[in-house]
């Protein structure tokens, strides 16, 4: 029996890595459309080398979500609201998980350890 080991690449979702042309092909948008989305604040690429826009995996996922919403008939103002609400929901979910973990760490597991009234 042969056992093979494979390296797993851990990808930082926020690392700027793609130029606008590659992103345009990935999300099937014209580069000018992506620039327009940047100008109205829907997407914010990094510019680590001066004027060159670089997009992260998170940026690409956000653009895909924008494309999905606009194809469903949502206008860009609606897209902005939906994206903002989704970000707020994600932040609240993370906070709930953090509080649950804190609560679980502070509550004794054994009922004999902390008898009721």
Automatic annotation (TrEMBL):
Alphabetized Pfam families for the sequence: MerR_1
Keyword Repeat: no
Domain HTH merR-type: 17-85
Gene3D superfamilies linked: 1.10.1660.10
Keyword Endoplasmic reticulum tagged: no
PROSITE patterns: HTH_MERR_1 (PS00552), HTH_MERR_2 (PS50937)
Keywords: DNA-binding, Stress response
Molecular function (Gene Ontology), one example: DNA-binding transcription factor activity
InterPro entries hit by this protein: DNA-bd_dom_put_sf, MerR-type_HTH_dom, MerR_fam
Transmembrane portions of the chain: none
PANTHER family cross-referenced by the UniProt entry: HTH-TYPE TRANSCRIPTIONAL REGULATOR YFMP, REDOX-CYCLING DRUG-SENSING TRANSCRIPTIONAL ACTIVATOR SOXR
UniProt protein name: MerR family transcriptional regulator, heat shock protein HspR
